[in-house]
């Protein structure tokens, strides 16, 4: 399922795009936000299907080797452990994943070179060689291998570049999608006859959270920017990254809009996002400015939290 962290990042990116484009069409920008969120969920199934495609390619290599004029013993008696992996078979034959792939029109047909490239690098990977050389292989071994495959892909820069080229909306989504794929596989048991796919959202409120945060951040942008300006007036304006300022304004919108989200959660999330998406010093800068702003907004009653553990 898509995390609140990813939803916050989507809000920040779409707000950045809206402001930089000088667009006045709020509805169009809101639709772009929803589309980017839906596309992130598509990538989850794109990754689940990738291991299947790589196994199919491996199987085709085995069949071609058998058709040689002078096949070797290894050609005629290949190691099919990867091709016959029980978890990959579930991903391939299970209705849950197959239906989603068909509905979302997921395919590697136009990017099959990456499938072959991944296979060629996979067979050189230590975790693959270890798996293929085991004398006995259980369902647990098959599951651990597929989990390892997705973890290995998370370090693959070539795949990251291909995914970015496949869709601009997938920029920086790969790690989230691979984590979801690993979680899906980790819950499997040998008795299962189908894959239980993760829902798009953990809660029915998640999509509304993203939409509300985006709209509030946009509507309140100038007002919240004035607050930011007050607490950064001693800073060189040219040295304050626009993304830092944007992140703080969104954090203010979240702090003052969602009374059930603890202040600490909001601060921790946006400080971490600033560290990753802005400059190396952004985390400390955003933390310092937000700390002062929270004190002001709490004192004047704009931050009001309710619910168990928040009073």
Characterization of this structure:
This protein is mostly helical. The protein folds into two domains: 4-186, no CATH class; 220-299, NusB-like (N-utilizing Substance Protein B Homolog, Chain A). It contains 15 helices and no strands. The two termini are 29 Å apart.
Question: Which terms would index this structure?
Answer:
single chain, 311 residues, mainly alpha, N-utilizing Substance Protein B Homolog, Chain A, 15 helices, 68% helix
Task: Give a quick summary of the entry.
This protein is mainly alpha-helical. Helix content is 68%, strand content 0%.
Q: What is the CA–CA distance across the termini?
A: 29 Å
> What is the number of independent domains?
2
How much is the average pLDDT? 93
Helix content: 55-70%
- Could you tell me the number of beta strands? 0
Number of helical stretches of at least 4 residues = 15
Main beta-sheet strand count, sense and barrel state: none
């Amino acid at each position: 399922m898509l995390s609140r962290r990813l939803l916050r990042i989507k809000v920040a990116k779409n707000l950045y795009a809206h402001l930089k484009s000088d667009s006045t069409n709020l509805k169009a920008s809101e639709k772009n936000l929803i589309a980017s969120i839906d596309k992130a969920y598509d990538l989850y199934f794109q990754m689940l299907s990738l291991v299947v495609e790589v196994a199919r390619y491996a199987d085709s290599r085995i069949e071609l080797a058998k058709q040689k004029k002078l096949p070797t013993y290894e050609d005629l008696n290949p190691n099919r452990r990867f091709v016959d992996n029980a978890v990959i078979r579930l991903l391939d034959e299970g209705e849950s994943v197959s239906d989603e792939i068909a509905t979302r029109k997921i395919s590697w047909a136009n990017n099959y070179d990456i499938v072959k490239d991944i296979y060629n690098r996979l067979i050189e990977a230590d975790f693959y060689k270890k798996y293929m050389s085991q004398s006995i292989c259980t369902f647990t071994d098959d599951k651990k291998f597929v989990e390892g495959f997705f973890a290995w892909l998370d370090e693959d820069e070539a795949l990251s570049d291909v995914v970015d080229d496949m869709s601009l909306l997938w920029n920086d989504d790969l790690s989230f999608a691979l984590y979801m794929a690993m979680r899906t596989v980790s819950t499997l048991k040998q008795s299962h006859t189908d894959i239980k796919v993760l829902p798009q959202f953990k809660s029915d409120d998640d999509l509304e959270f993203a939409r509300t945060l985006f709209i509030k951040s946009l509507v309140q942008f100038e007002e919240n920017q004035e607050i930011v300006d007050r607490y950064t007036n001693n800073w060189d304006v040219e040295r304050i990254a626009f993304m830092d300022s944007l992140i703080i304004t969104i954090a203010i919108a979240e702090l003052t809009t969602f009374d059930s989200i603890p202040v600490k959660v909001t601060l921790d999330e946006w400080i971490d996002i600033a560290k990753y998406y802005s400059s190396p010093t952004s985390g400390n800068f955003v933390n310092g400015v937000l700390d002062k702003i929270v004190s002001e907004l709490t004192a004047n009653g704009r931050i009001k939290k309710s619910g168990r553990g928040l009073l």
